[in-house]
Known about the structure:
4-stranded mixed sheet; 51% helix; alpha/beta
Amino acid sequence: MTIDITGLPHERIAFCPSPLAELGAALHALAEPAHHARLHAWTTTTSAALRPELADRLHEADFMWRSTRSDILLPARPRETLAEELDDLDRMDDEKYVGSALEISCASPYSDGAPSPLVDERMRRRALDLATARGPRQAAFVERMLADPPGTRAWIRRLLEDCDEAFFADTWRRVRVQLAADARHKTELMRRKGLAEAVADASAAMVLEEDAAGSRIVVDKLGHARTGAGGSGVTFLPTAFGWPHLIALHAPGWQPVIQYPVPTRDLGGGVPVGTVTLRLEAVAHPMRMRLSRSLARGAYTTSELADTYGITAPEVSRHLAVMRKAGLISTQRRGRYVLHQLDVTVVARLGSDFLESVLR
């Protein structure tokens, strides 16, 4: 993923922690604990302490942070407090807010700047269909958002405020010092040694490319996209909850934002050689590697994966069969939908490099 920063002054490149972005990362960890083995103690303790009513509400809206991270949870201009960032969200117009909130599927035409479901009937039907594949409560939530955006936005704000009261305020007090220190370090590194050093220090999966054509931040993701930061800037958000994810907001009309994990210990583990060989052979095919990235983030139907990667549904099914034989994916049926998902706990045993690449 490429961010064109040609001519962008370094004053418009910011490293700064965001309470809203960190809350989004924490909610993702709660929704997908298998992605975050290092947070096992925190996710287990926090989940057990959640009031059933709050846990139910989180389940209704979890597609906003489970397989994709809604752009509304990644502020381009971080504030000191969660309340201030939620106030900023309240000032966003309904079309932009709802369009971002309903980024449900890996097949979303995100990079092309699809119209909001509030004004485009095709996108409205698509959002409802994707939500229905996730379950009746998710479908009801999307129907409510499309019918009553202001009321649903107020509901989401109350949900995030209740999470803050229940667990996040204490968590934020513990991690914000580390995140602020990392942001100051990156800012000072950029000032003393240049942006290339600061970008590389944030993640080995990012580089600054400079040539006669201009300057670009290149983020090593399995997907391909381009955006520009000339009219706005670039914001880097450190996260203590995010590893191994490296998230890049690059939708048209939004300021580019990159959320990068602060340094943590490596994830280890191993399994018998024969099992490793079978699983490595299963993911050695380039298309299965690409499918793994989507399936690691959430459960998807065969047709969604075919639409995303431009191949036929039978081709997807053949690749999934190989991965299923190796024990890498699980399948579940929800009504007329069959959803497939990578077993991240199994993939983690292949090695942290592979896990990080598919979850990046």
